[in-house]
Design brief:
By secondary structure, the protein is mainly α. It has helices at residues 8-22, 52-62, 66-80, 88-98, 103-108, 113-123, 128-131, and strands at residues 25-26, 46-47.
């Protein structure tokens, strides 16, 4: 079994954060003048480009080592079905060699990234929920 360069706890943290980010949608009421309680708190689910969760994810990913960042993208690709666990070393090499955008941007731009990361960990026999920080 190949080894991860990133701890399952860090991946679990990102899964939780990306799930928070995934519920966001585009702005539907850009000129809303009322307060959030009048709108049934709908505006909190809109992504206006200043999302604190996206900023937290970007800061967290930016603090990781290069190997940890490569593993994150490779885990996402593994969970997406781009390769099998037996091809992990090749997948990591491809990820390292072809990455053009910052890791956080790659992750945040991928729909279902939290599910893909969870599936990637599962291929390593790791249940992300058990690794999640309490």
């Amino acid at each position: 079994m190949p080894e991860l360069n990133i701890s399952p706890e860090k991946v679990a943290f990102l899964i939780e954060k990306t799930r928070e980010f995934d519920v966001k949608e585009g702005v539907t009421d850009p000129a809303s003048g009322s307060n959030a309680t009048d709108d049934n708190m709908v505006d909190v689910l809109e992504d206006d480009g200043h999302d604190p969760v996206a900023q937290e994810i970007t800061g967290f990913v930016g603090s990781l080592t290069e190997d940890e960042q490569v593993d994150l993208i490779a885990l996402m690709r593994l969970g997406r079905g781009d390769a099998e666990i037996e091809e992990w070393d090749r997948l990591r090499r491809e990820t390292r060699d072809t990455r053009e955008a910052p890791t956080a941007r790659v992750l945040l731009d991928e729909p279902l990234v939290s599910d893909y990361l969870a599936e990637g960990l599962s291929a390593f026999g790791i249940d992300w929920a058990e690794a999640a920080p309490e």
